[in-house]
Amino acid sequence: MPTDILAEVSAARIVPVIVIERAVDAEPLCRALAAGGLQVAEITFRTAAAREAIATVARDFPEFILGAGTVTMPEEVAAAKQAGARFAVAPGCNPDIVKLAQSSGLPFWPGVCTPSDVERALSLGCTALKFFPAVAAGGIPMIKSLHAPYQHRGVRFVATGGIEIGNLRDWLKTPGVLAIGGTWMVAPKLIASGNWAEITRLTAEAVAVAKECA
Predict the structure, then answer these.
(1) What distance in Å separates the CA atoms of residue 107 and residue 42, rounded to the nearest whole number?
(2) Per-residue DSSP letter, 64
(3) In terms of pTM, does the model score above 0.85?
(4) Which of the 8 DSSP states describes residue 68?
(5) Distance of CA 64 to CAs 111, 152, 193, 197, Å?
(6) Orientation of helix 26-35 relative to helix 196-212, angle to 10°
(7) What angle do CA 201, 205, 107 make, to 5 degrees?
(8) pLDDT digits over 147-188, tens only?
(9) Active site residues
């Protein structure tokens, strides 16, 4: 992954993981995130609206660090790239998907949760990895154990899955964690109800914690 993307994500420390049902909600959602002090968005391919939402953000919010999440099929790699995503993320490490993303020039974070996963990712040239599902896969003790034998290889993690404001500080202080992915500040129910003020409040709260951990 290009250093500039890694540096930007590492500086932000928080990547909202967004499941969006209506592409029209992408604009007010990004305005709410920006008002809370965060210009990062990972829009997941879990809904039919994902591609249009990514394209909307890429067009209207060029300053955002924009990623495509849950990229698990070849056509999603192409769709993410064409829509304007600056990086892509997957829950697992599929060599075919990783190679396709690399050949298209799309920085990619494969998902890992075991040493074998990490070694597979390293063999593909990936050192920025998604640790998923973070809490269910053993939490902070697991990621510490996973990071220790590979830190000299430059491995760093975006930990995602089960992280929220209550444990955010502990995760951000964990060695090897360059950022966390979270859904609580962009919960589908908040987006569906248009509760942009609450999204801004939750985002500002998370950003404040991230700054404390800088």
Answers:
(1) 13
(2) S
(3) yes
(4) E
(5) 23, 31, 23, 19
(6) 40
(7) 100
(8) 999 999 999 999 999 999 999 999 999 999 999 999 999 999
(9) 42, 130
